[in-house]
Amino acid sequence: MQTIEAIVERGHIRTAVPLDVSNNTRCLVTILDEDLRSVRATARASLAPRHQRRLSGLLKANKVRSLTVAEERELDQLLVDVHELTARKAEAARILDQLTKKR
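RESULT FIELD:
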C-alpha cells in the first residue's frame, strides 16, 4: 500500500505526482483537517516553557499551602490546556501511525 499526499480543490482530489495505476486499483481516501506538516508538528508539540514552569510552580505551592482563588483558577486552566494538548497530540500520533502502517 502506498500513501500519497493530495490536494482537494473545488471538490476534486488532485495528487501532487501523477499516478501510474491499473484500472482495478482501489483507493481509500482519508481527509485530514490539516496538512501532514501540521499533523507532525502537533505530534511533537509541548506546553510552552513559561506555562510549564508556572504549572510546576502552582503544583508545588499547592503541596505546601492553600492556593488563592486566582491561583486555583489559573491551575485549573493550565490543566485544561495540558489535557487538550495531550488529546491533540494523541490524535496526531494516531494519524501518523496509521499512515506509516499503510506504506
